[in-house]
Amino acid sequence: MAQYTIKDLARYVGVSPSTVSRALRDHPDISESMKKRVEEAARKFNYQPNQLAQSLQKKRSSTIGVIVPEIRHHFFSTAISGIEEVAYEHGYTIMVCQSNETLARERINTQALISNRVAGLLIAISSETTCYDHLADVLRQGVPLVQFDRVVEELPTGKVVVDDYKAAYEAVAHLASSGYRRIGHMAGQDGISLNGLRYKGYRDALHAYGLEYVPAYHLHGGYREEDGRQGAKQYLAMERPPEAILAINDPVAVGLFSEFRRAGLCIPEDVALVGFSDTPVAALLEPALTTVYQPAFCMGKTAAQLLMRQFDEENGTFLPETVVLETKLLIRGSSIARERRQ
Questions:
Q1: Closest Cα to residue 35, out of 18, 54, 20?
Q2: Residue among 121, 131, 129, 201 at smallest CA distance from 169
Q3: How confident is the model over 133-172, as pLDDT tens digits?
Q4: Rounded mean pLDDT of 272-286?
Q5: Do 160 and 321 form a contact (C-beta atoms < 8 A)?
Q6: Residue 280 and residue 200 share a domain
Q7: How many Cβ atoms from other residues are within 10 Å of residue 237's Cβ?
Q8: What is d(CA 333, CA 184) in angstroms, rounded to the nearest whole number?
Q9: Most buried residue, 165, 232, 281, 324, by CB count within 10 Å?
Q10: DSSP-derived pairing of the beta strands 328-330 and 290-293
Q11: Which UniProt keywords apply (predicted)?
Q12: Distance between CA 163 and CA 326 in Å, rounded?
């Protein structure tokens, strides 16, 4: 059966198409009785608005684009759930793309979403995104943009992050207070702001507790388990490896954990580990992984709420803001205090 249009409704009600259009949009110039007649006709004929026509008229659709490094990563999948909840409440759907931690795919995804006239864009940048001209282009085109978790500080957009410096500082302070003296950091790739903040927290905590910073203990890698396994091999090859390690995230910590175990080391007797993000697997390890809890669902919700606020302030009054969410160090068996042999 053919889909009814505004013109069909207008003929049925006996008014102009523009009157029907304004009635459906609850325009104040249309009487309540007319609005009721139009709504009854729309229900009778199961009228559905032409989303494509509306998007062309408004120069945007009712879809929000979301780009994350990896959907399979528990942190990002949880953040997407938070985004979807807010989008649904406001009558939007979401279209999710993953960059697979590459700048090239992030550029392609960004262009594809913009070409589909998304109402706005939410993004957590890839590990390779140190060049951000594609995101600057989004802003130049007037498309609302909000960044979350991994952000480009230089871009004037809404941002939702955690206090990465404080979280890393507290994690290293915990290790130092537990008696660990040689503390390493399995970091992410250079150029991403959160990596720099966590590194600074790590360095400052070492200094505060009178511990030596050993450059060899600060390794760079990616964000996956395999990066942790490769990092563990580098630590194992050292004559005096670290006694404890802060990993950039839980997958990297799990990679370190598995490779150290494969090499015959005991955790935390031989090496203590702390992760970041509190994925479900962290509590299932034996011993369970000490980690920094990040409110992923809340981060997604907050990012989407910032975007909705930007939609409501299209007249130029919107001012980008940065929301910093709290973290919590969850102390478990992988970093329990013990007597250290010097």
A1: 20
A2: 201
A3: 999 999 999 999 999 999 999 999 999 999 999 999 999 9
A4: 96
A5: no
A6: yes
A7: 8
A8: 18
A9: 232
A10: antiparallel
A11: DNA-binding, Transcription, Transcription regulation
A12: 7
**What number of helices (H) and strands (E) belong to the chain?**
13, 12
Does pLDDT of 56 surpass 50?
no
The one-letter code for the residue type at 254 is: V
Count: domains in the chain: 3
Q: How far is CA 279 from the centre of its chain?
A: 14
Residue 71 has pLDDT above 90, yes or no: yes
Per-residue confidence (pLDDT) for residue 86, from 0 to 100: 95
Specify the pTM: 0.80
- Listed in sequence order, the residues at least 6 apart from 192 whose beta carbon sits closer than 8 Å to its beta carbon are 125, 127, 129, 130, 150
Alpha helices in the chain (DSSP H): 6-13, 17-24, 32-44, 51-58, 74-89, 103-115, 133-140, 164-177, 193-208, 225-236, 250-262, 280-284, 296-312
pLDDT at res. 227: 95
Do residues 34 and 98 share a domain? no
Q: How far is CA 340 from the centre of its chain?
A: 38
Task: State the Cα–Cα distance between residues 206 and 309, nearest whole angstrom.
Answer: 41
Same domain for 282 and 181: yes
Same domain, 66 and 147: yes
Q: What is the mean pLDDT of the chain?
A: 90
Do 249 and 139 fall within a single domain? no
252 three-class SS: helix
CATH number at residue 282: 3.40.50.2300
pLDDT over 70 (residue 340):
no
Question: In whole angstroms, how far apart are CA 215 and each of 80, 199, 242, 246, 253?
Answer: 36, 12, 11, 14, 19
Query: What pLDDT score was predicted for residue 50?
Result: 56
Q: What percent of the chain has pLDDT over 90?
A: 72
**Contact (Cβ atoms closer than 8 angstroms) between residue 249 and residue 238:** no
Is residue 339 scored above 80 in pLDDT? no
The reported pLDDT for the residue numbered 319 is 82
